[in-house]
Amino acid sequence: MQWRGLKSVCLVLIAVSFTLVPMGCKKQPPITLSAQAAPPAVFPGEPVTVSATAGSLSTKKNNNVVYSWSGQGVNGNGPTAAVATDSLAPGAYTVKAEVKEGKKGKEGLKPGQTADATANFTVKEFEPPTISCSASPTTIKPGDTATVTATGASPQNRPLTYSYSAAAGSVNGTGTTAEFNSTGAPTGSVDITCKVSDDKTHMATATTTVTIVAPPPPPQPHAQALCGLSFDTDKKRPTRVNNEAKACLDEVALDLQKQADAKVFIVGESDAKEKAKTEKQAKYAAKHKHAKVMDAAAQRAVNAKAYLVEEKGIDASRVSVATGTEDGQKIETYLVPAGANFSSDVQGTTPVDESTVKAEARKELHHR
What we know:
CATH architecture of the largest domain: 2-Layer Sandwich
Oligomer: single chain
Radius of gyration: 56 Å
Helix content: 10-25%
């Protein structure tokens, strides 16, 4: 018996009684395939790369290896492929990879020459934007405005749109700033809502508050003392408006012309002797119907008013006359602005009944 070695790698022949008997042949294992996606989770529009790794490929030089892919958005024909996620809705996705080997044009025809695998990835929902909102100033007067500032952010840098609304008044603006106008809004706190939305219809809101405060009331006007007149130099006509008195009353007329809504009060006074005489006459008149009562204080006030009305052209309705309680042959003048209360500011006066006290003619005194 003689042994011969043969060059075939898969066949050993044993010559027995001149007969060749095959003793065995080592088989090629089937190919394998694994696949993975990277990154495993993305937002719409971000790329995904899928890779396939084949194992147990034949080492024969004439073997060819072919890869194919299937799944939404996948594109590739080698061991790697790309997945376009722009049009994919949020959710879980699977990509399938397949590999075949064999002679060119005959890949995968024999058992063990085909393998497949899957890779999974997730398309995440875009995160909603965030927003903060502030106003400056936070306290305004009725009719004033405030600037509203909104600060929005998108975690995935989506384009943002802003809008605003107010519980009262009005707010105008479409960018990151708007103007709140308090016209028509009541005093108190007003809520302003800032809203931001992205191109995926996600939105967020925030609020800020502006307080409308009524301005303090204007200071209460008061009666203002003007010039005073003395009548004690003309002993024969102690109630007559003389040239010195005219100078004072001319200034009073100018003040009334400057303040068209003001009035003037003229308060006449009398001395003790005149008061006693008036009191005596009043007692006598109480018993005698046609008796006259001379009130020097009232007469001085009425005469001064007549000068303002007749010679300075002041409307009579703007001049009021009264008597006071002080001692002296004089008058005091008071400018009373609109809204002022003369009776509260100057107390102790009594209005003159102008139906009983008539103005005296300003006749010159003739000397003999």
